[in-house]
Amino acid sequence: MGCDGEAATSLQVLRRLDTGPRGLTEAEAASRLTDLGENTPPRPHTVSWPLRCARALRDPFTAVLLTLGLVSALVASWGTAVVILALVAVSAALRALGEHRADRALAGLRALVAGTATVLRRSGEDAPPRAREVPVAELVPGDVVRLGPGDLVPADVRLLRARGLTVHQAVLTGESAPVAKTAVDVPGSAADGPFQEPYLCFQGSAVASGSATAVVVEPGRRTRFAVAQGAAAPREASAFDRSVHGISWVLIRFMLLTPPLVLMANAALRGRGLETLPFAVAVAVGLTPEMLPVIVTTCLARGAALLARAHRVVVRRLPALHDLGAVDVLCIDKTGTLTQDRPVVDRALGPDGADDPEVLRWAAVGAWWTLQLAELPAPDALDEALLTAAGPVGEEYDGVGAVPFDPERRAATAVVAGTLGTHVLVTKGAAEDVLRRCDLGPAERDRLLALAAGEAEAGLRVLAVATARLPARTRPYTAADEHGLVFRGLVTFRDALAPGAAEALRGLADLGVSIRILTGDHPATAARACRDLGLPTAEAGTATDVPHPADVPRSADVPHPADGPAPEGAGPARESVVVARCTPEDKARIVAGLRAAGHTVGFLGDGVNDIPALRAADVGIAPRTAVDLARETADVVLAEKDLGAIGHAVTAGRHSSANIAAYLRVTLSSNLGNVIAMLCAGLLLPFLPMLPVQVLAQNLCFDAAQLAFAYDRPGPAALRRPTVLRPRAFLRFITGFGMLNAIADLATFGVLALALRGPDALDDQAVFHSAWFTENLLTQALVMFLLRGGTRPGPVGRAAAALAAVGLLLPPGPVGAALGMTGLPPAYHALLAAVLGLYALALRAARARHDRWRPGRS
């Protein structure tokens, strides 16, 4: 809404919009609709299949694979080129298909919004205005609309007249209670922002009670509802993007360095020049985890499909599933997540502060007859809570009249028949306003105000109840009769807890996820809800207490995504932190600050006020009932606003991430060891240690076996902590275990020298190639089984056994002969078994030492 609309009087607004209280004519409305377009928020455009596939190829690792494939084609290594390009194409297709399915599922979950609005239109200049229903999309600036209980505000509007109007604007501000609105003609200062101005209502709000007439000031793409998405900051790289990019650049450095080293070493020591280029490319390909795009996409797609099928959780962006598994801080709102959007009675207190059920009975009587006798009955959430707690009270008294709630006097009164010839006024409302109408001395009034303030500071909403007995009369009662009242007591309310919230919070705590509650409510109200759920709170404050991310140094005990994970127990406190009075900018700032401190942050939101934070988080989560813009911004969409579903999603993310991490550990350490051994062998031998076609065959066998990682079940320990793919941790892991693998490969030289008739046997190229081919596949099978984590064989164990069988049976067979290999003597197999046995013992010892030294590392 423009500044002019916020600072001008209602008459100035009408003049600026060239309209009046009687509304526009049909011709004027049609002309403006043609010029300005429909009153609809911007919708995301549908992404074409070619663009989806192209976006799937953007990460640097896929670019490296494409480059290696093209280089292989240039050096006429057609088999390598075809395999690499086929893997890239399959990965891009799988990722594009997964995102297409997620978008299609989201379209099926998309909630419908209000279809029509009541607008005043005239058939001509001199014709009287007529109220009629028109589609919301046809509203234009200058239209005069009428609002009633239950209506959705169809655009950003300026109130012209209002009667007892309160609106729910939680989707814009996060406030759980309805906000009173009045048609003041002279605006005051907007110190707290436009949402606190009493004369403005915004698209996305819902009328809770009362009625109003308003003029449309900003429709469609110019409403604050729609502008919120465009005003949000661009999304930063998520935890998955940072991790994959970091690991990819580590591999890129290795791969760019390997071919020149091979060429220079062979040219300097063996006099071989460009004829070794195919071998150098094959070695670089051997270092490359070609299956990484396929494994990553398959793991994430399977996890996303399982979530959608079993828990109705739609993952719109596949990498967001990994980010869910890495989440260690979850930021949520209070209303609708920890609590339901309704209050329940907590206690009824007499003037002395002791429990008094009579206070609840009188409050319920007032609520019942106010609803029954008011000219425009509008059920209030507090009235519903009173009637639910007190049970049927309407038959105890006969109703006489009612003075409905007024936001300015903040009270409502019901009049019932008392004893013969008397009427009883039952007034309930804000403590300050009710006590002002009671016949009390200053000291007693101050004491009762302090009693009410104490309950409010405890996070409860407070309703004061007073009565007065008057002579019966026939003249209608008004607000002027609310004086000389007898104070009866206070009724306190707390937020109704969301079913299953306490259990879900305990489940998230068991997963190592800390909770941050970012709400527009009062700090005491949010802290009270946490206590009622059994959730300990480390602190409760307002958004102004939280410093800007740039002013917060990164904590030494919280790891940055580029570092290794923190030891068990380090990182965020296990207690929740409540931050109240949050604006949309505050929420995004707090999320950004947590990310700057090294956390992986999830944010659950459903309103327009949540869109900046949804974008700022590593993974944005929204329920199906969220506003369209929030749902389209989110990475993950829940069928219901249920913390339990988030727990399932986090577990699924860790499942997929653990499999991806196991694949990377196994593949990179094994590949690095093979490359080091090949470089050494290339310098020690008078011939190539393995033919390029044999390197390709070995890679194909290993790649096929590695598909099992996409279907593996990680051990329970991998699911109990956030799983992040950390480049530095992987570099340390693959360097250590890669060197161990290289030692096992080089030990094969000694075995060959002893088993194959002495040192001269090394001149038998076919025997050497066959022996090393077998040894490589057997060591890779051992690495797959021993480094994956967990104890059950599972799919990876079966794949490792199949890989070992191929290593033993392929060289002496016809396929081996076609690849230039031959059978091996029995002595070699005996000595090889001894080498592999020692290698297996060394692997287990090294893995146990690694786990003890760096607990919790991914």
From TrEMBL:
Bias (Low complexity): 561-573
One matching Pfam family: E1-E2_ATPase
Residues of the Cation-transporting P-type ATPase N-terminal domain: 4-77
Membrane topology: Multi-pass membrane protein
Region spans: Disordered: 539-574
Gene Ontology CC entries for this record: plasma membrane
Keyword 4Fe-4S set for record: no
EC category name: translocase
Chief location of this protein within or outside the cell: membrane
UniProt catalytic activity: Mg(2+)(out) + ATP + H2O = Mg(2+)(in) + ADP + phosphate + H(+); ATP + H2O = ADP + phosphate + H(+)
Alphabetized GO MF terms: ATP binding; ATP hydrolysis activity; P-type magnesium transporter activity
Keywords, ordered alphabetically: ATP-binding, Cell inner membrane, Cell membrane, Magnesium, Membrane, Nucleotide-binding, Phosphoprotein, Translocase, Transmembrane, Transmembrane helix
Segments passing through the bilayer: 61-94, 729-755, 767-787, 799-821, 827-846
EC number: 7.2.2.14
Cellular localization per UniProt: Cell inner membrane
Role summary: Mediates magnesium influx to the cytosol.
NCBIfam families recorded: ATPase-IIIB_Mg (TIGR01524), ATPase_P-type (TIGR01494)
Family according to the record: Belongs to the cation transport ATPase (P-type) (TC 3.A.3) family. Type IIIB subfamily.
Name of the protein in its database record: Magnesium-transporting ATPase, P-type 1
Provenance organism: Streptomyces sp. R39
UniProt lineage: Bacteria, Bacillati, Actinomycetota, Actinomycetes, Kitasatosporales
Gene assigned in the entry: mgtA
